[in-house]
Amino acid sequence: MSELHKLTANQLKQEYKNGKTTPQGAMQALLERIEKIEPKVKAFAHLPERCLAKRCQAPLTQKIDRFEVPGTFLHGIPVAIKDNICVKDELTTCASKILEGFRPPYDATVIEKLRNAGAILFGKTNMDEFAFGSSCENSCYYPTRNPWDTARIPGGSSGGSAAAVAADEVTMALGSDTGGSIRQPASLCGVVGLKPTYGRVSRYGLIAFASSLDQIGPITKDVSDAALLMNVIAGHDERDTTSADVAVPDYIKSLTKNVKGLKIGIPKEYFIKGIDPEVKSAIEIAVKVLTDLGAICKEVSLPSTEYAVSVYYIIATAEASSNLARFDGVRYGYRHQGEASMIDMVANTRGDGFGAEAKRRIILGTFALSSGYYDAYYLKAQKVRTLIKRDFDEAFKKFDCIITPTSPTAAFKIGEKTSDPLSMYLSDIFTISANLAGIPAMSVPCGFTKDNLPIGMQILSKPFDEETIFRTAFTYEQNTQWHTRKPKL
Amino acid sequence: MKYYPIIGLEVHLELNTESKVFCGCSTQFGSAPNSQVCPVCLGLPGSLPVLNKTALTYALKVALALNCEIADFTKFDRKNYFYPDLPKSYQISQYDKPLSKAGWLDIETNGALKRIGITRVHQEEDTGKLLHKEGVAMSLVDFNRSGIPLLEIVSEPDMNSAEEAYEYLTRLKAILEYLDVSDCDMEKGSLRCDANISISTDPKKLGTKAEIKNMNSFKAVRSALEHEITRQTGMLSEGSRIIQETRLWDDNKGITLPMRSKEGAHDYRYFPEPDLVPFIFSSEDIKKVADSLPELPTARRKRIIEQYSLSEYDASVLTQDKDMADYFEEAVKLYNKPKSVANWLLSDIAAATSSTVGIKQLNLSVGRLVEMLKMIDSGVISGKIAKDVLAGMIDTGKPAAAIVKEKGLEQISDDKVIENAADNVLRENPKAVEDYRSGKATALTFLVGQLMRHTKGKANPAIANKILIKKLGAS
């Protein structure tokens, strides 16, 4: 049997071009792979259907030799979609009971763009309910497993997308990132994940967690694939007024193997207590690799870092409490039956339909917005958010990008942190600031622990300067071998 | 002890933009339930609002016409509460940075001018509508109304009588109609008004207020306030305490009844709407809208008084209704007797209109009216007969000439015909003839009336008069 499931999108396109295989062949290989290993990984909330080919407009069985036309960028490339992105007529449930059976009557903008680029929509991936979590354990279906060690979590909330890509169940995937939900699972699963600048990718059709922080982004097997997928999904959208009307460069052109003279800041606040020594040392070695390639790496200070987690859990939960208020059982999804009054129906629908973490965050956010507390919490948090952003503005006056670990530890065991929400929240300590500041950040594989668990390096840059991230990440990747390792499943 | 009513009004106005405020759905009234909806106005997960620029321009127009200060920075906020007609479980509204504040509107009661403060004008979205079927233990929701642009126009508590409130609403409606931003139809719900009223023994202090809802016409607002003033004054003079509450007006019974007590204010947990970027008005933006404002009622009234030498009263009534004033000015262009046109408009024509049928809906084009007025001038019909002709025109939509012909209403100016009629009248009324000759001038009026009766009102009154005098003097 061929190894088509292992190929990156760029490699697969080459195979198509050479006439060695067709999209039909690639899908076949992936479906066989899923059949074999999905019971172990549980990456999907809703599996790609076998009859999926019928719905793809692209010809699937012919030789494809032209990828230059925009409509063929992803021709025949299977892409898995996180379950919080609306796909017309397909189950889109945010891994929540409250959205049981919900099939949106419309496509998210990114889905339209994928369809127009000829991609094959390949299943909906598992996640923490409404993206609330860092372990994929808060799914109403089942926890997803880390392909490198199925007793461990894959990270979250886009754990399904990261695990599916890492386990070669799909070629590439979309995730969403509110506080690290793309980068942390990418790091823990040994794949590439990019959270673009806030406003770079349309949020239309992404079921909101925290509207001022959410961004959709790629999770891929390597940096080139991330650039390819970004070329398709980035850009201004009239349906999302927070999407920026800023020209989108060709990210593939920024894949140059050159970091000579690149100024990289290493924030000292990211290397203190709680960080796993193995992670710390992997990052130090990665920085050394980049230095050897000609980058200038220096220490930088981001003094407001210590407030990021607190600020995040006020702003994100406040917005979430309002965003999730629409799930009341009146119009769609789950409705608790048997009540005589409207108020009881809404209360019991929400009581029964939301999981524990969703309820915890709704209550936190409701409290933060309540009259008498608003100034002390929400307003104060917004002010500190501005300080965090200013730290980065200052740092980027001197540096082209910043490098940190993506996560303080490698993947932890399933169940290890479920009883301690605070320690779970700290999994995102290095990723949250990028969302608060609205800046782009990517996680790239940069090593393994002695237990053979992947470690990720985070690269951050100025707003709308994903190109510097691509350049740095690609140069690093091409000079290391981490991205070529595969989990044994 | 003297009691002072203190009244503030909150008006919700549906703007007549073609599409909704945050999506492209139609705002057409009266369509089949849930036929004008999309993911955005249904609040489906993942959908996002995009502000309709026309709605914003309309809001600016109203704010400027009400002399408000326009904010240089404004934003939308979410007002959070659960209700089945509110699909997102929050309403996009404006909280601490409304697009405008601190305006005013002048009203006039009993000949005295009074300035009523406008606290703020802000933009928000309408909710859906619950439909209750009698005898069925469930409600249905129609989301066609969800997302229709609303303006909230809040007045200062500057009114002290039901009459002032009525006058405020009348003036406000006139301005809104001149701006052509809303149908202003209370029955259809495109203009809604809630009133806050308290009674105080100190005119400078507010008493405990009641909020009155469910009034479907300006008259209902006035009646409800009159009722409420009596009720609250009665309670206070008995020494009872007024409780802060919302009361519903029952138009049939003519009373207000308590709805729900509102001791502690609702916590709507307002916060800035993260899905819409805040915006900043430049002075050019504001100037552009200001320059586009049409002539408003006050200015028009002044001009009409000067230009056409109408009385203050006539001009004021004419300009209160934009269509009426437009009609007037068009008619005067074709027929340069402003006073005569105004008289017809303010008497017979105004009487034919109602709250639902305005002058535009009457079967009476300006051209047709002018034709009729010219027929009076040329003596074809008398002024008295013209009233019947006008009624016929409005009833049938036919031109004056056709009505006159059909009903045989031409004025009789033929001396011979009138002389015959006069002879008959004189023969039949010897007593009146005698009276007249013995110096009782009023007898002539009676005889003219009799002559008109004989000719079914068609005799030219001037000729009839002349002939009667001649004949009475002759024998």
From TrEMBL, chain A:
Keywords: ATP-binding, Ligase, Nucleotide-binding, Protein biosynthesis, Transferase. It catalyses: L-glutamyl-tRNA(Gln) + L-glutamine + ATP + H2O = L-glutaminyl-tRNA(Gln) + L-glutamate + ADP + phosphate + H(+). Residues 28-469 form the Amidase domain. The keyword Nuclease does not apply. The active site is at 82 (charge relay system), 157 (charge relay system), 181 (acyl-ester intermediate). One of its GO terms (cellular component) is glutamyl-tRNA(Gln) amidotransferase complex. GO terms for molecular function: ATP binding; glutaminyl-tRNA synthase (glutamine-hydrolyzing) activity; transferase activity. PROSITE patterns: AMIDASES. The keyword Ribosomal protein does not apply. One of its GO terms (biological process) is translation. Its EC number is 6.3.5.7. Belongs to the amidase family. GatA subfamily. Allows the formation of correctly charged Gln-tRNA(Gln) through the transamidation of misacylated Glu-tRNA(Gln) in organisms which lack glutaminyl-tRNA synthetase. The reaction takes place in the presence of glutamine and ATP through an activated gamma-phospho-Glu-tRNA(Gln). Heterotrimer of A, B and C subunits. HAMAP family: GatA. This is Glutamyl-tRNA(Gln) amidotransferase subunit A. It comes from Candidatus Taenaricola geysiri.
